[in-house]
């Protein structure tokens, strides 16, 4: 694989409509840097030939590579991609997620080409809820990002990683393991890694995934809790308790109160 500036990794499984949505947002991007960008598509669809065909048809102007996923699960797919990618930076854009607009990709490229070459670049993301556009902001203050239940913790769709550093940090194959990796990077940033926060929305987040649901079943709760215990993400267990019925009815108010309590203790 040729060494490029940026590899965009897209993971898919039997979701061809979402593949089209994401790939069209990449293809419609306005950038003079297409030769510096590689699209790595890992797929585990039953009809993987169709998935590859979509990628080739839509992303014909880019360097596009298709791989059939050998493992199972999205985070194992992330790890497979890390073993393949040979670019300077890596960005995970889930199928279903899209760039905010035609200039978003060029904004990412510009930041990757800065003279200081930060090891970790993170942005804001947007989403639509009840037909209203909302922004999930990150924060230039890493301590704020690392606070439990922080609204300013960056989503992985907002994060650009230096590939050679990320190759030493793998995703556990459990719910929330993207948070595990991002927290690792942020903690290293405090003392060692160079980083940059860019106050711009680059991505529209797809709210259809299970991690975005406001209500989950008991079975889903225990499945996710197992992973959180292994990774030490204990605050995520509490967050999932609030997604159980009937507690989920009062979730928003409980989260607000919890954040206020944490804020008070942090400022004592």
Helix content: 25-40%
Q: What is the end-to-end distance?
A: 52 Å
Strand content: 15-25%
The total count of strands amounts to: 9
Q: State Rg.
A: 18 Å
Q: For the report, how would you describe the main beta sheet?
A: 9 strands, mixed
Overall shape: globular
> Which structural class do the helices and strands define?
alpha/beta
Q: Would you tell me the overall average pLDDT? A: 89
Low-pLDDT regions: none
The sequence of SSEs as H and E is EHEHEHEEHEEHEHHEHHH
SS field, number of helical segments: 10
Description of the structure:
- The chain has 268 residues and is an alpha/beta fold.
- The chain has ten helices and nine strands.
- Strands 1, 2, 3, 4, 5, 6, 7, 8 and 9 form a nine-stranded mixed β-sheet that branches.
- Helix 1 packs parallel to helix 2 (48-58) and helix 8 (218-231) runs antiparallel to helix 9.
Condensed summary:
This protein has 268 residues and is of the alpha/beta class. The chain has helices at residues 16-27, 48-58, 74-84, 104-112, 142-146, 163-166, 177-191, 218-231, 234-241, 251-266; strands at residues 6-12, 37-43, 63-68, 89-92, 98-99, 120-129, 132-136, 159-162, 195-204.
């Amino acid at each position: 694989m040729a060494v490029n500036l940026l590899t965009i990794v897209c993971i898919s499984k039997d979701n061809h409509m979402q593949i089209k949505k994401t790939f069209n947002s990449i293809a419609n991007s306005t950038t003079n840097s297409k030769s510096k960008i590689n699209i790595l598509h890992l797929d585990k669809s039953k009809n993987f030939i169709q998935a590859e065909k979509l990628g080739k048809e839509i992303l014909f102007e880019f360097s596009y590579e298709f791989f059939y996923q050998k493992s199972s699960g999205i985070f194992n797919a992330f790890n497979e991609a890390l073993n393949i990618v040979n670019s300077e930076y890596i960005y995970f854009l889930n199928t279903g997620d899209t760039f905010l607009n035609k200039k978003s990709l060029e904004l990412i490229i510009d930041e990757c080409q800065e003279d200081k070459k930060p090891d970790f670049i993170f942005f804001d993301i947007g989403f639509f809820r009840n037909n209203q556009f909302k922004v999930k902001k990150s924060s230039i203050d890493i301590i704020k990002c690392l606070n439990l239940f922080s609204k300013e913790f960056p989503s992985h769709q907002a994060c650009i990683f230096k590939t050679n550093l990320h190759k030493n940090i793998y995703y556990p194959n459990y719910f929330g393991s993207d948070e595990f990796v991002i927290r690792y990077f942020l903690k290293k940033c405090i003392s060692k890694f160079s980083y940059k926060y860019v106050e711009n929305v680059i991505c529209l987040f797809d709210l259809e995934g299970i991690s975005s649901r406001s209500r989950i079943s008991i079975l889903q709760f225990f499945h996710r809790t197992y992973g959180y215990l292994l990774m030490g993400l204990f605050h995520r267990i509490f967050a999932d308790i609030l997604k159980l019925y009937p507690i989920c009815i009062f979730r928003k108010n409980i989260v607000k109160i919890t954040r206020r309590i944490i804020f008070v203790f942090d400022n004592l």
